[in-house]
């Protein structure tokens, strides 16, 4: 009897262990933190930079509140106007100038001789390029004299590439990119030199010429009313959240 | 009677206390192995109640079933056929059958005990 029970017990112990391990394995599906010291350092740096930026923003907001409170009777209108101007600048309704790059899209000269078709600047190419520029820290971008803002659409209408309704047909096409400061401009210039966009444009029989602007360049203001049909007021609870 | 249950609890305790985990890829094999183990366990209980229990059969059945089930699952993965379903099906059906038999035996025992009490 006893001997019989021992075998049984050992087996049940084994089953218990298996069950527990399985439970734990199924339950523990969350991803482990596998970052090494350098990655952690980098992430920490990013977070610090973010914190600095947020602090700056908080300070500016607090200043504004103080300003509002101080001038509540005196020149309310002026404060409002300055806020409005600030917002307009942020959205892109004003002209802006600063250091940056000038990118020129041109057809390939040799191709003209052979007689094959000159490529078209497709919306995909432009979108990719703009995304790349934004990734490298572009502050303001204009394409062919049209300002690119957050709600700008670049799309194909009847085989014509249009940016916010303006068609882009004539080459060369000039893109102006403004960045924060001259160091950033130089960095972006170097990055764009080895960018894959150049190859992408070349496939379409176009060349992308990148130049570092010597003087400050100016991008025009966005000159259409901004439509905000799909915008909603943010939920108060999720205010201040940042990804 | 109580020793196996105690063993199960000890096993669960050890499993939860130790920080032992298997990689996700092998979780499938362990789950099928657990099914096989449960099948064997209930088979053993049934055999016990029917007085045909043999330790050799029980222990060998335990390990053999686990290996067979995991082997089938492994083969299934490599052949692209969900062979582990065969194991799930077989063990699942047997599990139900064994539990049904156990229930009947226990019920029969219980009713006969009641009848004995009434007679006395």
UniProtKB/TrEMBL annotation, chain A:
Coiled-coil blocks: 44-78
Keyword presence, NADP: no
Record flagged with keyword Cytoplasm: no
Gene3D superfamilies with a match to the protein in the record: Protein of unknown function DUF881
One protein family per Pfam: DUF881
Residue spans crossing the bilayer: 6-23
Keyword entries, A-Z: Coiled coil, Membrane, Transmembrane, Transmembrane helix
Family listed: Belongs to the UPF0749 family.
Name listed for the protein in its UniProt record: DUF881 domain-containing protein
Species of provenance: Cytobacillus stercorigallinarum
From TrEMBL, chain B:
UniProt-recorded name of the protein: Small basic family protein
Bilayer topology term: Multi-pass membrane protein
Keyword set includes Cell membrane: yes
Keywords recorded for this protein, A-Z: Cell membrane, Membrane, Transmembrane, Transmembrane helix
Signal peptide boundaries: none
Membrane spanning stretches: 27-45, 57-77, 83-102
Compartmental location: Cell membrane
Superkingdom assignment: Bacteria
């Amino acid at each position: 009897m006893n001997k019989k029970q021992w075998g049984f017990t050992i087996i049940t112990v084994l089953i218990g262990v298996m069950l527990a391990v399985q439970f734990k394995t199924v339950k523990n599906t969350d991803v482990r933190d596998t970052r090494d010291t350098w990655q952690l350092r980098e992430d920490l740096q990013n977070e610090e930079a973010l914190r600095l930026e947020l602090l700056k923003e908080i300070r500016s907001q607090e200043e504004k509140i103080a300003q509002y409170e101080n001038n509540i009777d005196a020149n309310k209108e002026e404060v409002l106007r300055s806020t409005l101007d600030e917002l307009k600048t942020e959205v892109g309704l004003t002209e802006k100038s600063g250091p940056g790059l000038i990118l020129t899209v041109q057809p390939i000269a040799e191709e003209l001789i052979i007689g094959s078709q000159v490529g078209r600047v497709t919306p995909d190419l432009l979108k990719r390029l703009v995304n790349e520029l934004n990734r490298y820290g572009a502050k303001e971008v204009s394409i062919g004299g049209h300002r690119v803002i957050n709600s700008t659409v670049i799309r194909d209408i009847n085989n014509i590439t249009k940016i916010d309704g303006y068609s882009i047909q004539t080459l060369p096409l000039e893109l102006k990119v403004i960045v924060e400061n001259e160091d950033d401009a130089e960095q972006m210039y170097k990055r764009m030199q080895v960018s894959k966009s150049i190859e992408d444009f070349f496939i379409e029989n176009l060349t992308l010429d990148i130049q570092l602007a010597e003087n400050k360049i100016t991008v025009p203001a966005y000159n259409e009313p901004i439509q905000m049909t799909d915008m909603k007021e943010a939920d108060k609870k999720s205010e201040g959240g940042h990804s | 009677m109580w020793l196996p249950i105690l063993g199960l609890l000890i096993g669960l305790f050890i499993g939860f206390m130790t920080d032992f985990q298997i990689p996700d890829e092998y979780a499938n094999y362990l789950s099928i192995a657990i099914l096989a183990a449960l099948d064997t366990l209930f088979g053993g209980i049934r055999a016990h109640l029917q007085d045909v229990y043999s330790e050799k059969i029980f222990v060998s059945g335990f390990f053999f079933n686990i290996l067979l089930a995991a082997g089938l699952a492994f083969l299934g993965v490599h052949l692209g056929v969900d062979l582990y379903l065969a194991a799930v099906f077989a063990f699942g059906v047997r599990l139900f059958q064994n539990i049904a038999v156990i229930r009947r035996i226990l019920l029969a025992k219980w009713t006969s005990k009641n009848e004995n009490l009434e007679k006395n």
